[in-house]
Amino acid sequence: MSVRIAGVSAHVAENALTIDEVEARISQSSDGFLPPSGVLGRLTGVRRIHHAGTETQASDLAAAAARTTLASLGLDVADVDLLVFASASQDMVEPATSHIVADLLGGRCPVMDVKNACNSWLNGVQVAEALIAMGQYHRVLVVTGEMPSRAARWSVRDAAQFVESVPGYTMSDAGAACLVERTSPGDRGEILHRWFTAESRHWSVGQLPAGGTRHPRDVDKGYFVMDGARLRRAFDSVDVEEIHRALKSDGLGVEDFVAVAVHQVAMPYLDVFAARLGLRRDLVVETLPEHGNCASATLPLQWQQVERLHLAEPGSPVLLVGLAGGISVGTIAVRW
């Protein structure tokens, strides 16, 4: 028995903004502060982002993707044994957003939330695979609904506050879903490898502090705050040889993959990370310039791009690489 990922779907929110429009909004919303012209594009390589409407919730984005996934497989929500909402965003603290998604879909199955910043969807797949391998479930629907636009700081006090707020300006709202299910060895989407690690001593380098016990009601803590230089050093501290050893233990090497999906925050660092891991840069799927950082919906969005552009032949291995605040790193390899 094996486990596969099937029916991956992803979509960005309906309202597109150019990065110039983002800078203009900051200028209009701030009292006296003007961001340097073109700075966001130069720093990140992002040209366009996507924001959902004011009435849209994270659960709506997740449910829309779930409907697409189920329809593509000829299934109904009644065929799902477990629904996992795996996202950095959430509708509210209680109840779990997975309940809201299930209600939108008309589902009656068990549900749970999984949260680990931009690796949430990848960890959701990890949890689903483990539960299926245990024999507890046959089909698990893993969904995400990301709405980072709600945590972008538009009214900026000064240059220092702008710098720590930059990540919020290049993130997009998006939804994604996939079905993880029991299958036979050799089937398309079969999970061939999984590996996860964390360097949690770096948890403070990027935060959205509001809503927990530390800052339950402080409105000013409801915005992204990140030290970009420290974040890069944190990811540089990860021993990429661990990834190579984990792949080798499953009979794989980076040279085997015909396409690689990597979570993307800034194009300059994507180049650095690809070089560190020894990836052929032309095999790394790019979504950041036209879609921004879609948080945990990034990897399914790239999966969909591999599918639409026919970047992988049936049976060939494809690698998914998750990079997340905290910090966390994870890899899953699948048979295309």
TrEMBL record:
It holds the Pfam family ACP_syn_III. Residues 112-188 form the Beta-ketoacyl-[acyl-carrier-protein] synthase III N-terminal domain. InterPro entries: ACP_syn_III_C (IPR013747), ACP_syn_III_N (IPR013751), Thiolase-like (IPR016039). Residues 247-336 form the Beta-ketoacyl-[acyl-carrier-protein] synthase III C-terminal domain. Keywords: Acyltransferase, Transferase. One of its GO terms (biological process) is secondary metabolite biosynthetic process. GO terms for molecular function: 3-oxoacyl-[acyl-carrier-protein] synthase activity. The keyword Transferase applies. The keyword Heme does not apply. This is 3-oxoacyl-ACP synthase. It comes from Terrabacter aerolatus.
